[in-house]
Here is the input.
Amino acid sequence: MSDQAEHRRDAGLVRAEGCTKVYGDGPASVTAVADADLTIRAGELIALVGPSGSGKSTLLSMLGALLTPTQGSVRVDDVDVGSLDERARTELRAQRIGFVFQAAGLVPFLTAEENVATVGTFAGLARHVARGRARQLLDELGLAGRAGHLPEALSGGERQRVAIARALLVDPPVLLADEPTAHLDADRGQQVVELLADAVHTGDRAGLIVTHDSRVAAEADRIVHIADGRLRTMA
Ligand SMILES: Nc1ncnc2c1ncn2[C@@H]1O[C@H](COP(=O)(O)OP(=O)(O)O)[C@@H](O)[C@H]1O
Ligand SMILES: [Mg+2]
Here is the structure.
């Protein structure tokens, strides 16, 4: 194992320390996440579970450098996100973090393959490289025959698999998913969870899935509970 791989495994690829997010100020302020410590190691999939409004999406957004903590720090692959300006944070996200959200969020007038390949532009991939990798990922995710279809011609489960391919295009070390099975039936949901878990485990990525879904929890290496913005790790 290389030094970097070993370090990612031991010290963690994503590290939140004392992470707090307060929305607004004064009496109307909401503390969405309070003093969260969380480490995600390479090859580890965490299920983040908690009731609606408990701070799951806020925490995921801070881990993914989409949102700046009010207090505390987040490190992604040894980079202190708080030390970066907006442009550098955008670059960090494009190169190192794959996101999958509740809705696939595909561009309606681009084919599945184009939807996946397009994100390569932001990470500086040559167009033909991005397209080749997009085709390969769609193939691996069981969508070879769907590459040329527009999103409207795909089922919900297929669209979410395209979103996974898009999240993996640049081979990011971190994969974050926010309720990715919320709009899917049991079978499609299970398939999506297995694909995400596989991407984390075989790709040695740090993974976190926000979910209410017990099937997701079953695939996870660790379950972290959140209530009223506070984390509790169960053994
Ligand atoms: N942009 C925002 N402005 C103000 N309050 C917010 C904002 N986003 C979320 N909240 C509040 O923060 C709390 C946590 O929200 P969220 O992280 O979305 O929870 P979850 O994903 O677990 O449903 C909730 O009380 C929510 O109303
Ligand atoms: Mg949420």
Summary: The longest strand covers residues 30-40. The chain has a mean pLDDT of 93.
